[in-house]
Amino acid sequence: MCLLTSSPFSDSSASSRTSYRQSSNSLRQKNGNNGNKVTNSNGNKRKQNPDREDPKELGIDTINFNNENMPPNGDPPADATEADLRAHIKHLNENASIQAGNRGPQVVLNKGIQNKIAETVLNITWRTEKFVRGEAHKRRLSNKVFVQSGLNDGSGMTEEQFFGLYGSTVLQTLNCKRNYRIGEMKKVVHAYMANNSGDDPPTAAEIKMCSERNIEDEMMDTWLWYCGPLMQAAAGHVDWGENTMYFYELSKATYPDDANKLRVPPSTEAFLLTVYQGYVAMWTKQYHFRLKHGPKRPYPKIYCKQGETLTDEDKKWRCAYTEPDSGAKTYGGWNHKGLTKFVANRKAIILVRQTQESKDLEADGLSGLRTKDDFDFVTHEDYLKHKKRRTAAIPAEVTPVDDLLSEEV
Prior knowledge:
Blueprint: H1 14-31, H2 82-88, E1 96-99, E2 106-109, H3 111-123, H4 135-148, H5 159-195, H6 204-211, H7 220-235, H8 242-245, E3 254-255, E4 258-262, H9 266-293, H10 312-315, H11 336-352, H12 356-372, H13 380-393, H14 401-404
Antiparallel strand pairs: 1-2, 3-4
Helix pairs in contact: 3-5, 4-5, 5-7, 5-9, 6-9, 7-9, 7-12, 9-11
C-alpha cells in the first residue's frame, strides 16, 4: 500500500546542494559541531522517537542561530574586548558563553538550550503558529516557546533575557519548519503529475473548494487527495499519517492526552490552502522544466529590483505571496498579501468545519481513503500491532540531510 509514488525529479540542483554543504560545514565549525551522527552523552547513537520530529533530521543543526547576530542590540565593534562584550549583553550568564572569533569575541549560545527550543517549535509550537508577523509577534512567540519548552522554570532566565539571547533561534526554527513543509507539499504535487502522465494538478480554485467543503461528485478524487497526501505533507506524518488519517475524520483527530487538542487545527488547513494558492503555478512550471531539461539544470532565478514590475511569465517562477528580494525575508519572505490571505482562510475554515456538510464530507473522505489505499485494519489496536511487527522487520530508512535542506523554490 502506498499513498503516492515519488516524483522522478530532484528538488534541488547540484550547485545548490554543494552550496548547502559548504554552508553547513562552515556553520558546524563556528558552532563547534564536527558533523558527527546524533549521539548521547555516552557516545552511543541516540534512539529516535517516531512520534516526534528530530531537529537534526530537518537540518536544524546547520542553522547559524547565534554568532552573527548579537542579541539584543546588534554586533559589537570588531575590536571589542571580552569586558566590552560582557557590558554589551548585561544578562549574559550560564545560558551563553564568550569565545574568540574572527571579528573579536562572540557570543556562543548554549547548544542544549537551542536543541530544546528546536524540538519545542517543531513538535508543539508549529501546530498553531505558522508565520511571524513583525517584531511584536516575534516577541510573543518567543515568550510562548519559553513556557512550552519549560525553560521558564529552572533556566535562570527571564522572558526578556530569553528573547534577547534566543529570539532569533525561535524565529529561524519556525521558518525552517515552514519551508520544509512547503517542500513536502511540492513533492506531493510533482508526484501527482508524475502519476497522471504529466497532467496539471488540481487548480488553486479546486483546492479552495475543498477547504469550503463545496465538493461535487466529480471532484471526489481531488477531495481524497486533499485529505490524504496533500494534508499529510502540510501537517506532517506524526499528526496526519497512517496512524491517524485512516481512523479519524480530518477535524476530529485529537491527541490521546488532550481531547481538545486537534492534530490538524484550522491553522494547518489554512496553511495548506494559502501555500497551494501561492505556489501551485510555480510548482507546475518547475515540473515541466525538469521534464524538458533533466534534474541537474537549475531553475531560472527571477529577481525584482525595487521599482521594477515582473512580467506575467516571470511571475510564474515565484510564489505569489513571498518577496525574497525584500527585507521581509527575516520573517520567511511572506508579504502582507500572503499573511492577510492566510488569516482570511483560517477564519473561513473555522466556520465551515462547524457545518453538517463538512462533517459529512470528512466522513466520506475517511472511508474513501481507506478504500482507495486498501487499508484493511478495522481497529487502531490491530494497526499498531502490525506496525510494531513491520518496524522490527524492516530497517529504518535514513533520509540524507542534503535532501532536507533543499531550497524553498
